[in-house]
Amino acid sequence: MEYCLDTGDLEMVKKVADLYPIRCFSMNPSIAVNCLRGTGRTFLQNAKMIREVIGEDTPFYLEAMGDTAEEMIEDAHKIRQEIKGNTMIKIPACPQGFKAIRLLKEEDILCSCTAIYDFNQAMLAAEAGAYCVAVYVSRVDNSGGDGIEVVRKIKEAFVMEGIACKVSAASLKQVNYLEKAALAGADNVTVTLDLLEKMAIHPLTQKTLDTFKADWESLFGEGMRVANMTE
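Above: the chain's sequence. Below: its structure in token form.
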């Protein structure tokens, strides 16, 4: 399972790219607005700066806007023209979106169908040619459903039918959902820096490291490391 950082915050991207094994990055319209307000940067300017940090080979998911398939396709072309490298297009799960995915697939442009809330939307997206379907897990839960169960059913159906489409668990708000998503078969989970840090830090690990350091320094002295030792 791969982890995908969902942000438009350039400094956050730099920090995460330096520390964590993140395989892809994404940015939806709401996240972009929240991160860009007051910066003076446009969506494309910011995306280009992120691309420079993560490199051209790293998957980068960016959303096409528009009310019609034609408008979404026009946005997709502009994004691909301006943001070089392994850039994929996010298209919403709606009738016009399914049309856009199908037509972009004919151009060999990979699309992630986003804002998936149920099994049927995911099946339509896959049939249209989506490379990935992104289930909004927490939002499904908030509406009275079971987002992880939706992920599990979609993944089971894709495997059963031999459908080559990835399943992403998106909109995750709690760290325990990452484990649930993995066990449900998600190929990808979108995360925030907050979730990553909760995954990475455990109080018992820090306690163990403190013990190791105290024991080591009791014999070899404060600040001594292997690199400082002579034979």
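Strands lie at 2-6, 24-27, 60-63, 87-92, 111-116, 132-136, 166-170, 188-191.
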